[in-house]
Each structure stands twice: as C-alpha cells, then as structure tokens.
Amino acid sequence: MNTNDIVTALNNISNKLDKPLFDANTLITVLVGLLSITLGWYITYRLSLKQMKKSLVSDLQIKSSQDIIYQIYILKNSLLRTNSNLSDFIFFLQQYKCSFNELGLRNVNRSDSVYSTYESVLNIHIKLVMDKFEEIRLTFQELTNSFNLFWTIFESKQVILNEFVPIYQLLLSKLNEYFISYLKITSIYQVELFSDINLKNQINNVVLENIQEKIRNLESLYYECSSYLGDFSNELQNKYLSHLFNNYVIPKREPKDKRKKVLSLDNYEEFEP
User: Fold this and answer.
1) Same domain for 205 and 91
2) Residue 273: enclosing H or E segment and its boundaries?
3) Whole domain around residue 233: which residue ranges?
4) Is the pLDDT of residue 209 over 80?
5) What 8-state DSSP symbol labels residue 163?
6) Cβ count within 10 A of residue 58
7) Does the keyword Transmembrane apply (predicted)?
C-alpha cells in the first residue's frame, strides 16, 4: 500500500465520522419514545404511591378500630359489674335496716339469751354490707383502669380515627358524669352510714333514701353510657370493617323508649355537650 492509498483510506474514515448517526426524523422518534416511557413510569409510580398510601391508611384504620372496639368491650363489662354491685349494695343496706328494726321492735334486752341470736343475724348483714362495699371499691378501681386504657389508646389514635373524635368526646363527658355521681354515693355512705353500721346503730332513713335515689339516677346513667359505648362500637365496625365482610352493616340500636337517642356519626351534633 502506497502513501496515496493510506491518505484515501483516512479521508474515507473522516467522512464517515462526520456524518450523523441518525437523521432528524429518527432522532425525534427516539426522543418521543423515551419521553413516553419516562412519563408512563412516572404515572405508574405516582399511582402506586397513591395506592400504597390508601392501603396503609386502611390498614391503620382497621387495626385502630379493632383496638378501640376491644377496649369498649372491657369498659362495658367493668361498668356492668360496678352497676350490679351497687344494686346489691343498696339491698344489703336495706337488709341491715330490717334486721336492726327487728331487734328494736322485739325490744330484746342484751341480757336475754335470745339477743345473741338476733345479734348474730345482724352481724351477718353487717358483714354483707362491708364486704359488698369493698367489692364495689375494687370494681370501681377496675372501671377507672379500663376507662384510662380506653382514653389512652383513643388519644394515641386520634389522627387515624379523627372522624370519631366528636363521639369520643361525648362519651368522655357522659362517663365523667357517671364517675362523679358514683363518688357522691360512696362518699355519703362512708361519712354518714359506715360508723353507725360498724357500731350496730340504727341508720338514718333520710340518708338511706338519699343513697337509694342517687343509685337509681346512677343506674339511668349506666344504661346511657353502656348504650352509647355499644353505639360507638357499631359505628366503628360499620365504618372500617363492613367492607371486609360483604358490606354487612350492623343495624342501629332501637330503644323501646323513643325519647332515648342513638349515638352515631350522623347525629352526634344533636347531643348536648
């Protein structure tokens, strides 16, 4: 190969390198294709993020509602035991009163042998009253623990269950009313009746009737609190769990007394704060 051949070959290579790899139309087609792929990926990515967020929110709502529903169950049972014990308590107070009156009506002297028989009966009623009051104290402690747990868990999930905050606040107000009424009853007993019963003295009828009246009012409050807690549980299930079970919906409570209200997301504004 001579010098002229080498020069010719180099010139040919140079010319090929100077020539564009793609013409204008081909380049535009490639760029449009790349842009379409990028845009498609971005849209898919955004939709995927949206779906992931929706799924995460749903999972959090389901888990949170299950936690609250369980705490409602515990709280309702604690309320039931407290209310039941108070009903028994007033019965035992009345039995003590009857037993004491029996001793008084018979006008039995302490020196008489029969007195010990009546006194033993009275002692039984005293023990029943004292034991029941201790049981009341323990069940109320259980109730306050259940309430505190319910309160703590809901407060930690307010953002997740924000739609239910108004119902929750109404429940707190009603439960607080119950607690105050309960403490008034136990305070009256401890201040005005405990010593007389412990010393086997006659109890004040006015005080006993006052306690009876307050327990009747408390029982009405109990039914309200228990019913509203049940309404709250049903609303949570219908809102966050229904779609998992063929959209089954728990029917709203239907009180026999039409003056009674049912607590729901639709009507909480009708309730007094």
Assistant:
1) yes
2) none
3) 63-270
4) yes
5) G
6) 13
7) yes
